[in-house]
Amino acid sequence: MTSPLPPVGQRPDLLRMEAVNKTFGSDIVALDNMNLNVQSGDFISLLGPSGCGKSTALRLISGLMQPTQGRIEWQVPHDPGDLGVVFQEPTLMPWATVAQNVWLPFRLRGKSYAAVRDDVREALALVGLDKFEDAYPRELSGGMKMRVSIARAMVTHPKLILMDEPFAALDEITRFKLNNDLLQLKEKIGCTVIFVTHSVFESVFLSDRIVVMAARPGRVQAELTVDTPYPRSEEFRTSSEYAQQCRAASDALQDAMGMPA
Ligand SMILES: Nc1ncnc2c1ncn2[C@@H]1O[C@H](COP(=O)(O)OP(=O)(O)OP(=O)(O)O)[C@@H](O)[C@H]1O
Ligand SMILES: [Mg+2]
C-alpha cells in the first residue's frame, strides 16, 4: 500500500459478520453469536483452542458454508477474484507445474494461460519462486509448496485473503521467514487478511487485531489490538514490546480456555 493505513477501527468497512451462529446437527454449536467487523487493510488473527470454530468462521466467510443464523455481508462490491484462500495443506495439483497451479483461479473463470501469464509470473516473483515456474510440486520443499499456494491465492489480487493455519506444518525457521514475507506481500498487494492460528507468537507478530475465541460453544472471547506499526522486522520479534503483547494475548487465550493465567 502506498499511503499508511489509518489506525485499527478507522478503516473502511469490508465485511461484516452479525450475530452469526453455526450449528451442526441438533446440538454442536460451532459458533455462537459471532460479530466481526472486518475493515480494509486489517490483519486479523483468529486465535483459540482446538474446536472453537476458527475454521468454521473462515468457511462461512468464504461462502463455502451458510450460517444457521445471522448474516455475513460484504460492505463493498466484490467478485470471486476478490477472495483468496490458503489452507494448512498446500493442496497443489501434483500433475501440474507450479505456473499451472497458480493459474487455477483464473482457469476456473475461463481465462487462458496466455491471457494471464504476466499475472502468474508476477505472483510467483512476489513469493520468490520466479525460477520455479516449470517445476512440479514434488520437486519443492514444504515451505516452497506453501509459497505456491500463497501465490495462487493472491494471483487475482484479492481484497480479502483467508488463511487457515497455513504455516502450522512447517519448521520454525521456515515459518518465521514466511511470516516476514507474508507481511511484505500484504503491503504490496494492499489486501486484508484473516489468519487462523494456535500460536500466540505468530498472531502478535503478524496481526494488528487478535480475535481470541473460546470453545463449547465457539465464540469470540476478547479482542486485542497490536498497534506496533508495520513494517515489522526481526527486531520486533526480540523487542520487549513484542514480549508484552505476547503476554497479553497469552493471558487472554488462557482466560478463553478457562485456565488461570
Ligand atoms: N462439518 C461438520 N460437521 C459436524 N461438526 C463439525 C463440522 N465442522 C466442524 N464441526 C464441529 O464444530 C466445532 C468447531 O470446529 P472447527 O473446525 O471450526 O474448529 P477449529 O477452531 O478450527 O479447531 P482446530 O483448531 O482443531 O482446527 C467442533 O466441535 C467441530 O467438531
Ligand atoms: Mg481448524
Topology (SSEs and partners):
Elements: E1 13-24, E2 28-39, E3 43-47, H1 54-62, E4 69-74, E5 83-86, H2 98-107, H3 113-126, H4 142-154, E6 160-164, H5 172-189, E7 192-197, H6 200-206, E8 209-214, E9 219-225, H7 234-237, H8 240-256
Parallel strand pairs: 3-7, 3-8, 5-6, 6-7
Antiparallel strand pairs: 1-2, 1-4, 8-9
Helix pairs in contact: 2-3, 2-4, 3-4, 6-8
The structure holds adenosine-5'-triphosphate and magnesium ion.
Describe the structure.
With 261 residues, the protein is α/β, with parallel strands linked by helices. It has 2 domains: 12-78 and 160-261, Rossmann fold; 88-158. It has helices at 54-62, 98-107, 113-126, 142-154, 172-189, 200-206, 234-237, 240-256, and strands at 13-24, 28-39, 43-47, 69-74, 83-86, 160-164, 192-197, 209-214, 219-225. Strand 6 (160-164), helix 5 and strand 7 form a beta-alpha-beta unit. The relative contact order is 0.18. The mean pLDDT is 94. Residues 54-55, 164 line the site of magnesium ion.
Task: Profile the largest sheet.
Answer: 6 strands, mixed
* Content of β-strand: 15-25%
User: How many DSSP helices?
Assistant: 8
- Main CATH class of the largest domain: Alpha Beta
Whole-angstrom Rg: 18 Å
Number of domains: 2
What's the helical proportion of residues? 25-40%
Q: What is the CATH topology of the largest domain? A: Rossmann fold
CATH superfamily of the largest domain: P-loop containing nucleotide triphosphate hydrolases
The overall average pLDDT, rounded, is 94
Poorly predicted regions:
none
Q: What is the spatial order of strands in the main beta sheet?
A: 5-6-7-3-8-9
